[in-house]
Amino acid sequence: MSFSPANITALVIAASFAAGLNIYATVLTLGLLARTHWVALPPGLDSLGHTWVIAVCAVMFAIEFFADKIPGFDIIWNGLHTVVRIPVAALVAYHASSQLSPEMQILATALGAGIALAAHGSKTALRAAVTPSPEPISNIALSTSEDVVAVALTWIATHHPFVAASVALALLVAAFLVARALLRAVQKPLRKIFRPDLERDLEPDKSLPNP
User: Fold this and answer.
1) Residue 43 lies in a domain
2) pLDDT by residue for the chain (211 residues), tens digit each?
3) What's the domain range around 133?
């Protein structure tokens, strides 16, 4: 890929979205691509090909692969990774844009952090809505889909950055809308359980005559 400002921006958008889903899978994919020289990456990302980076990300990806599929614990795991996914995504964006002007590099870093935060927030909201379901299949399916999307989107971003960026933005909008709808659906029955007095107050008094 050429390292024009537009291509680097598209790469940052796609990689940051993937990082918000699974930071270890994203960095591991970029690291392996940098190590094998399968595709040309921005020079600032060469450090991701170091052996220790690949080894650490591979181990953490293996741990997250199982931890993120345990209903209930996945909420705790994702909550803790708020302080991991967003800063690391910002760091990746900073290095990816190292050959741009300082002003553009700062904007790319902020964009990477913002996209990762939005993706991470949507993922956490979806998990909060799905976790109350009694069966574990939905959690496992959702987590596996996130892993696949993170790896695939990162790979596509290094070959077709504009396609990957478009997909990332579309998925971000869709995830936000789905998470919002699911949370609204879950809030009502939970409100009836924990705040029955509030539900009674909100219900119209049927004993009063209709106007």
Assistant:
1) yes
2) 667 889 999 999 999 999 999 999 999 999 999 999 888 899 899 999 999 999 999 999 999 999 988 888 888 999 999 999 999 999 999 999 999 999 999 999 999 999 999 999 988 888 877 777 766 788 888 899 999 999 999 999 999 999 999 999 999 898 878 777 776 776 665 555 555 554 555 555 555 555 5
3) 5-202
pTM summary value: 0.83
Tallying the residues shown for the chain, one arrives at 211
Q: How far is CA 160 from CA 11, 16, 27, 104, in A?
A: 9, 15, 18, 21
Helical H segments across 5-98, by residue range: 5-21, 23-36, 51-67, 73-80, 82-96
Is residue 89 classed as helix, strand or coil in its secondary structure?
Answer: helix
Please give the structure tokens belonging to residue 126. 């979806």
Contact 93, 109 (CB under 8 A): yes
Residue 207 falls within a domain, yes or no? Answer: no
Domain count, the chain: 1
In a domain, 168, yes or no: yes
